[in-house]
What we know:
Blueprint: H1 3-11, E1 16-20, H2 26-35, E2 39-43, H3 47-54, H4 67-76, E3 80-83, E4 94-97, H5 112-124, E5 129-133, H6 141-154, E6 162-166, H7 176-182, E7 185-189, H8 192-202, E8 210-214, H9 215-246, H10 250-257, H11 280-285, H12 297-322, E9 331-335, H13 351-360, E10 364-368, H14 379-382, E11 386-391, H15 396-399, H16 403-408, E12 410-417, H17 424-429, E13 433-436
Parallel strand pairs: 1-2, 1-4, 2-3, 4-5, 5-6, 7-8, 9-10, 9-11, 11-12, 12-13
Antiparallel strand pairs: 6-7
Helix pairs in contact: 1-8, 2-4, 5-6, 9-12, 12-13
Amino acid sequence: MTLNEQQAKIEDRKAVIGVVGLGYVGLPVACKFAEAGFRVIGVDIKAERVAQINAGENPIEGREPGLADLLKQVAKSDQFNATLDYADISEADVILISVETPVGKDHEPNFDALGAASTSTGRSMKEGTLVIVESTVAPGTMDGVVMPLLEEASGSMLNAGFFLGHCPERVMPGRLLANIEKMPRVCGGSSPETAETMMALYKIIVRGDLDPTDCLTAELVKTTENAYRDVNIGFANEVALICEAVGGDVRQVKDLVNKVPYRQMLDAGAGVGGHCIPKDPWLLAYGASDEKAPLRIIPAARAINDFMPLHMVALLQDAMESAGKDVSGSRILVMGYSYLQDSDDTRNSPSAVLVPRLQELGADVVIHDPYVPEYQSDLWNVATEIDAVIIMVRHSQYLEIDLAKLKSSMTAPVLVDGRAVFDAEKAEALGFEYRGVGQGKAA
C-alpha cells in the first residue's frame, strides 16, 4: 500500500488503527480514534488491563474528565478492542507505539520496552503499514533503534515495505483527553510524504497546530520541551532555598517577578516526578559527547530537583527539633504519594524518595493518598496520634482540610508543607510548628 492509498483510507475513516501500549498515552488516543469512527485494536502485555478495557472499565485512577465515559462508549460499540496478542494487529494500516522509555540510574535510556514493541510490531505488520512512535525518545532513536528492528523483524525496507514516523505525545495525567485534542503536535516523518500522511491522521482528533518535520527534529523538540521545564523548576527550587536562608517568601517573590512582561517563574515544591520530566532531560543529552556539548545546566537542574524530597526531611528535622521531638520513633503522616495532584500516577514520585529516608531515620511512616489504591483510606482514621504531617501532593481533598481539626488529632503539631497547601501565618496562629518550601522564618 502506498502513502497516497493510506491517506485516502485515513480520510475515509476506513483505516484500521493498532495501538501498542494502553497506558496513560495509548489508552486515551485509542479512545479518541475509535470515537472518530476508526476501528481500533489495542495491544498490552497486562492481562488485567486488557480485561478491564474490553469490559469498558477505565484502568486509570484519578480525575480524568471524560475518559471513563468515552472508554465505555467505544468498548460497547466494538470500535475499540484490546488484546494480548500482536497477531491481532496484523490487519492494521497504522500502528501507534506508546510504551514507556525510562532511563536508568546511569542516565542511559532503557530501550527494552520500545525494542520489544518494535520487534513484535515488525513481525506482525502487513506491507505498507505506517508505524508511528508516540513514546518520547532520545535523539537518534528512530533511526538507530526503531527502524533497524522493524526492518529486521519484518524483512521489509523503510519507505518501501513500511513507513515510519515520530509524533511524541504531549499528555499529562488529569488532562489526557483535553491535551490530545488541544495541544499542538510535531509530526516527524521518515520522509516528507510520511509527515503529510501523519498530519492527515492526527488532524482528525487534534485541534491544535500540526507541524511536519523529520524524525530527529521531532525527537529533539519533545525532549527539549521537558528539559526546559525541568530547568525552570530547578531555578524556582533554588530561589526557594535562598528565600528560606534569608527569611523571604518564594511565593511572594514569584508573584512579583511574574508581573514583569516576559517573566514566568514557576512554582517551587517538594520535588519533580512523573514519567517525563525526570528522564527527558537525560534523553535529550544522551549521545552528545562532553567534548562537543559539555553539559552544565541540565545536570544542575536535575540535581536540585532530585534534592528537594531530601530537603523536605531537613525541614521536618528542623521543625521537630523546635517542637522538642526527634524524627526517630515519631509517627509521621505523609500526605500524597502520586507525583501529581488528583492523579494515581506514582512514577518517579518524590514521596518514593522521602519515605525510605524517613524510615532510615527511625520514623514510623503512615501514607495517605486519595487516588493511589494502596494508600486510600479515611484521612482522619490515619491522622491520629501523629507527631508530624508532611504535605507532598496538592490534592484537591487536602485543600479542604480543617487545620484546627488536624491539630487536635496530633500529639505534636508539626506541619511541613511542600506544595503551598496551607497559609503559613494561619498555621502558626493555630500553634503549628510550620515549615514550607521557600518560606523563611522571618517571612
